[in-house]
Design a protein that fits this description.
alpha+beta; homodimer
């Protein structure tokens, strides 16, 4: 079973990488408002139970993948590909 | 109009960050197969036409956001929030 985790800087948290992207896009002539950059983590999990998979990924986020003080997390669990 | 771009290392391309996540998760006791790490870019666009938005974001990917040789791109265009 596969899971996708999106880790984004929370609103109001400084995001220098996003600011750099925003400014570069404007210099290239694109009319963009804000740009924010985060991480996407794709995981192959051992379990085939979606609920168990989600619980595991939530623990992974708490223990390694994200800093809950400054980052928000979005978890998608998909059927095995 | 908002767009979300997922930029991932292509299959077969070395992903040291993903390998580090994978090995750390295993050391923490999680049974994971492969882990891959990419970027998520959230953009606020000036246009309100979904087709025009997607075309703009495709150009942004080609000019700045991704390296087509080693990265694959997934674009989601959403209604304004």
């Amino acid at each position: 079973m596969r899971a996708t985790v999106l880790v984004r800087p929370k609103d109001g948290i400084l995001d220098p990488q996003g600011q750099a992207v925003e400014s570069s896009l404007r210099k290239l002539g694109f009319a963009v408002g804000e740009a924010r950059v985060g991480r996407v983590v794709d995981l192959e999990l051992d379990t085939s139970d979606p609920q168990e998979a989600r619980a595991q990924v939530e623990r992974m986020c708490a223990e390694l993948l994200a800093n809950p003080l400054i980052e928000s997390v979005e978890i998608d669990v998909e059927a095995a590909s």
